[in-house]
Design brief:
mainly alpha, 68% helix
């Protein structure tokens, strides 16, 4: 097993999904089932969680801090939509990245006892994050319709914005999954960094509230672009900035490939330290 060679092709980012699609689906379903096994509400917790988040964040930032957005949505309903859209997008990234450092540590048997495609574990985490995102978007749409807000056809463009973010999250996850085997402290640092990224993205405040000199720096955060564009297509009915979407996709694909290449080059040492 130690002498096995692993592909470092950029196409491996996508072929790893295609080649092991059925296994990824099986493991994703198993992970979701095990997460809620034994609880009274079961999978209903996946519905309760975004609803509670929606209520708490809306109360704190709208009622307590009197926050508002400058795109014309001064009503409570539009504010909640604006806030929750940003949270949904960031949750996909944070869920994948925060779990990454312990992915291999939690599946030691996959390393030592069987020949297993370890590179699919971040795909499993992403699948769980996407399912949670689907539940949250359902809650968002129900709230949107019940608030008598207009539905924009541009909302169908949301997957085209989430895919680049998913690739970026995968690249970071492959890197952290490998590093987490050798440096156990990385998980604690990851949680701090993702929390900082959440608050340094325009989730709880509009980007326009910042001085002009600081706005370009905000786009160094990979969450900023997706959060802003997601609000454009979901709430304001605007088309995405396709030029920047393509650039973001290409950069994310490079990050994904570099993360996978690092994972493949270092995986031979996993069994030695586990």
């Amino acid at each position: 097993m130690g002498s096995q060679r692993y592909s470092l092709s950029p196409l491996m980012v996508f072929t790893s999904l295609y080649s092991h699609w059925n296994l990824i689906r099986l493991l994703t379903g198993r992970e979701i089932a095990s997460r809620y096994r034994g609880s009274l509400l079961g999978v209903l917790w996946s519905l309760a969680h975004p609803i509670m988040m929606l209520v708490v964040y809306a109360f704190v930032f709208r009622v307590v801090f009197k926050a508002s957005w400058s795109h014309g949505g001064e009503g409570n309903s539009e504010f909640v939509m604006t806030l929750f859209t940003g949270l949904i997008v960031c949750a996909v990234f944070n869920e994948c990245v925060n779990r990454a450092p312990t992915l291999i540590l939690n599946h030691v048997s996959y390393v030592k006892k069987i020949v297993f495609p370890l590179e699919i574990l971040p795909w499993v985490s992403l699948g769980e994050a996407f399912l949670n995102m689907g539940v949250s978007i359902t809650v968002l749409l129900v709230f949107h319709i019940s608030s008598h807000l207009p539905l924009h056809w541009t909302a169908t463009m949301l997957p085209l914005l989430v895919i680049p973010l998913a690739l970026y999250a995968l690249g970071v996850s492959w890197f952290l999954a490998s590093v987490g085997v050798f440096v156990r402290d990385v998980g604690h640092a990851t949680t701090i960094v993702t929390n900082l990224m959440l608050f340094l993205a325009p989730v709880f405040y509009p980007l326009s509230s910042l001085p002009d000199a600081y706005r370009p720096c905000m786009y160094l955060n990979p969450l900023t672009f997706v959060v802003e564009q997601s609000r454009n297509v979901l709430i304001m009915g605007r088309m995405p900035s396709w030029h920047w979407v393509v650039i973001y996709f290409l950069c994310s694909a490079v990050v994904a490939w570099l993360g996978l290449a690092w994972f493949q080059r270092t995986r031979k040492g996993f069994a030695d330290v586990l």
